[in-house]
Amino acid sequence: MEYKICFVLAIALCFGFACSQRDSHPPYACQCLMETSEREECGFSSESITAEQCTRNGCCFDASVPDVPWCFRPSGERASVTYAKKTIPSQERKECGYEGITRKRCKRIGCCFDVKASGTPTCFHPPVNEGCSVLLEGVTAPSKCQCDVDPHKRDNCGPPGITPQECENKGCCFNSAVPGVPWCFKPKPPKLKCRCDVDPHKRANCGPPGITPQECENKGCCFNSAVPGVPWCFKPKPPKYRKVCPTDVKLRKDCGYPGISASACVKRKCCFNRKPPGVPWCFFHILEEEC
């Protein structure tokens, strides 16, 4: 009797180990598509877990929306495809794979499979966020170069314990790599010199008469008093953006499939980085404002 109990326990332990190993691979991209209100915590505290830890345990990670789980359970295939179809009009689908690709293969390369597709790609890329300077509650997130501030010269922008998302929603920068200094801090003002090269007679006024250069620049505007009879404080030209490979793993959006090689990734015109484990190695570019 004792032998049978031990034997059953051993089987249970082996089965549990096998299941945990099987489910521990990062989820496929299309499995993480769902309404934010439908997210379920994946057994971890979203406030403390990193993207690497979350995806390593077979969960989805997305820190772009506050007050919802960032580390959450993958959705079922039907639910995720339904969400993808609602998000991407059929005529805007970008084909993923090749003609005649199977559902299994499509899923393995991180794409969505719609068996009912007619006249549009059956296997298509999931929706991705290719923007870096995104609008968060009416605030434009600072560009990477604006957050390149000496840690010991940071100007605090939030209370202790503020989350990265709360910090960025205030238009501030967040970096917790250096202890003993503010982690949420004010960005450097944008370098507007090139954007201030505006024909004096085409300037759009950005301040009242008598405004000081500092007051003008604090509003994100340009100041030049060299030409009389035109606005001295004026709006800059629109910013220019460039495609870059994201350094923050949370911004990586899968562009390949598990085990993809660097050369295969480059052929897709995507970024490639084997580190860290548990996150996409082949991923899309993002847009970053030029400084």
TrEMBL record:
* Source superkingdom: Eukaryota
Q: What is its main location?
A: secreted
Q: Which Pfam families match?
A: Trefoil
Name which cysteines form disulfide bonds: 54-71, 96-111, 106-123, 157-172, 167-184, 196-222, 206-221, 216-233, 245-271, 255-270, 265-282
- Name its cellular compartments: Secreted
Q: Which GO terms describe its biological process?
A: maintenance of gastrointestinal epithelium
Any one Gene Ontology cellular component term annotated for this protein = extracellular space
Q: Which residues form the P-type domain?
A: 28-75, 79-127, 143-188, 194-237, 243-286
Alphabetically ordered keywords of this record: Disulfide bond, Secreted, Signal
- Signal peptide start-end: 1-20
Fetch the InterPro entries from UniProt.
Answer: P_trefoil_chordata, P_trefoil_CS, P_trefoil_dom, P_trefoil_dom_sf
Q: What is this protein called?
A: P-type domain-containing protein
